[in-house]
Amino acid sequence: MTDQKGLTDDELDAYRSFMSMNHVLGRHLARHLKQEFGLSDSDFEILVNLSESPHRRMRAVELTRVTQWDKTRLSHHVSRMEKRGLIRREACEARYPDIVLTDAGWDAIVTAAPANAARVREFFIDVLGPQRLAALRDAAKDVIAAIEEHMNTDCPPETSRS
To answer: Where is the HTH marR-type domain (predicted)?
Structure first.
């Protein structure tokens, strides 16, 4: 990045507004998940991924990839969820175990997901409306594509993947 320049006031305001929205919405949803269902936002992320995967299981390495967590964080969090009976590890032929959604984990996601989706609708989908939602979706895909291109070309190896 040899041509670095600062952001204009409008650019900085837009970026900060986006970051603030993301933070406020995420924290608000997380508080409701915790208070109403006893789930952290991290619990919910793991449960969603497992509930949407075939046979309600994923290889630990794949779960690390889709959550973008490092192996240590995933291992510690899986251990906490395992103690609560939401998931279990199953050994397999490969190096990393399968992480499997238990019946209690399935019940937890089936109970919490509708309330979470209703809040996402109330505070995000309905507030934006169809046109702004489509524009935001397209913009998000473009930003993700630009980051992936950077990671695959000139991003330092220690920064591109954790």
So the answer is: 32-132
